Request: fold
Amino acid sequence: MPGIAVRVIDRAHFEITNATTWTYFGRVMSWVTEDELVCGRGVIGHDSPVGRIGPGETIEWSDGSTVDVPVTVEIWDHPCGEGCDGAPIGAYLLPISPLEPAPGST
Reply:
């Protein structure tokens, strides 16, 4: 998505930068494999709203992708809270960082 950048800092942190003149909204999805589903095994998304990302703003977030729990960042042009089922206008799969977080930074 032009003007939106997602940068992994380390295994436990990333940042979203909005270099546009528009306000956007973000949501983080962690994809967890569940073994205790009625129908067997499956992947369930757990979401956390990032909230408003204003023009020229950078938001740092405490989360990161792992082999077992990949993380995606979704970008919306309107608030998208609980019950929002429309498609985001941008989505990023966070790569797995080789860097460990600095002590005391989590």
In short: The CA atoms of residues 43 and 73 lie 17 Å apart. The chain has a mean pLDDT of 87.
